[in-house]
From TrEMBL:
Catalytic class of the enzyme: lyase
Pfam families per record: Indigoidine_A
Presence of keyword Methyltransferase: no
Binding site for Mn(2+): 138
Transmembrane segments: none
A cellular component term, taken from the record's GO annotations: cytoplasm
Active-site residues per Swiss-Prot or TrEMBL entry: 25, 159
Keywords assigned by UniProt, alphabetized: Glycosidase, Hydrolase, Lyase, Manganese, Metal-binding
Protein name: Pseudouridine-5'-phosphate glycosidase
Naturally occurring in which organism (per UniProt): Actibacterium pelagium
Top-level taxon of the source organism: Bacteria
């Protein structure tokens, strides 16, 4: 049985020539915002990768295939799809077997990127340990995926709705390096700082690329999390966003929202309570992450070429 993996023409050409590639998730398209804003944002993120010198590979499950890279027609089809499944490690195989349309979370995108031979993945923010997890045990599969799948993930930290100290503790326990880019603080998605110190600081894309390759040479499993702070002009300061997050959390608890529905509910309420500013910030940070991911992918490609020539 052959692996159900296909490349878009653009990504196939990049694979043939050895050009740098950046994986992109698809849940932001199907579950992050309405059509046509989702399509416009997806196109902007892909173009940001191209402008920074790499090739975008938006990952999605369609018609029983893992698509590494979407044609313009496939991207539009996904953006207009209704009822796409939000897919993680646990349900990726069933989604493919049933031929469902699946939008990949961080964990699923990492799996697919690794299968496709793509080293770097840009997202908005990773999932993590939910507040109250000591009672609910609600912990995102993203953290375990980072511990076992060799992909460097560029994010604006973990989503600020989470328990960030417990998220960092879990990543440390799992041996996942958390590299904060040009910052001594761990970023908090909409805000540049969570108030938590950076576990590791890096200042160049080349350092991140070297660390990625050295982990492979050392035989260390898992990937890297790169915490890339949101641009200053787009951030929502913690003193502004934290009371809004607390209000949304209280509403979710009162409504009995749980499991996979928690994050979409909270993000939706925060969007309403910030008059849309949270979504504007989200788009800005994803674009910023796409640019850095392209630089890292380009660095990894250059380092490999240099090693091959020596």
């Amino acid at each position: 049985m052959t692996l159900p993996l296909i490349f878009s023409p653009e990504v196939a050409e990049a694979k043939r020539t050895g050009a740098p590639i950046v994986a992109l998730e698809s849940t932001i398209i199907t579950h992050g915002m309405p059509y046509p804003q989702n399509l416009e944002t997806a196109r902007l993120v892909e173009q940001q990768v191209r402008d920074a010198g790499a090739v975008p590979a938006t990952i999605a499950l369609m018609d029983g295939q893992i698509h590494a890279g979407l044609t313009p027609e496939a991207l539009e089809k996904l953006a207009q799809s209704n009822g796409a499944h939000k897919v993680s490690r646990a349900d990726i195989a069933v989604c493919l077997a049933k031929g469902w349309t699946g939008a990949t979370t961080v964990a699923a995108t990492m799996i697919c990127a690794n299968l496709a031979g793509i080293d770097v993945f840009a997202t908005g923010g990773i999932g993590g340990v939910h507040r109250g997890a000591e009672e609910t045990f609600d912990i995102s599969a993203d953290l375990m995926e980072l511990a076992q799948t060799s992909v460097t993930v560029v994010a604006a930290g973990a989503k600020a709705i989470l328990d960030l100290p417990k998220t960092l503790e879990t990543l440390e326990t799992q041996g996942v390096p958390v590299l904060c880019y040009q910052s001594d603080d761990f970023p908090a998605f909409w805000s540049r700082s969570s108030g938590l110190p950076a576990p590791l600081r890096v200042d160049t894309a080349s350092e991140i690329g070297q660390a990625h390759l050295l982990r492979g040479q050392l035989g260390l499993p898992g990937g890297q999390l790169v915490g890339n702070p949101i641009p200053e002009t787009a951030e929502i300061p913690t003193e502004t966003i934290n009371p809004i997050i607390q209000a949304a959390l209280s509403e979710a608890e009162a409504a009995g929202v749980s499991a996979k529905e928690v994050t979409p509910f909270l993000l939706g309420r925060i969007f309403e309570l910030t008059d849309g500013k949270s979504l504007d910030a989200n788009i800005a940070l994803v674009l910023n992450n796409a640019r850095l991911a392209a630089e890292i992918a380009t660095s990894i490609t250059a380092l490999r070429e240099k090693a091959d020539q020596s």
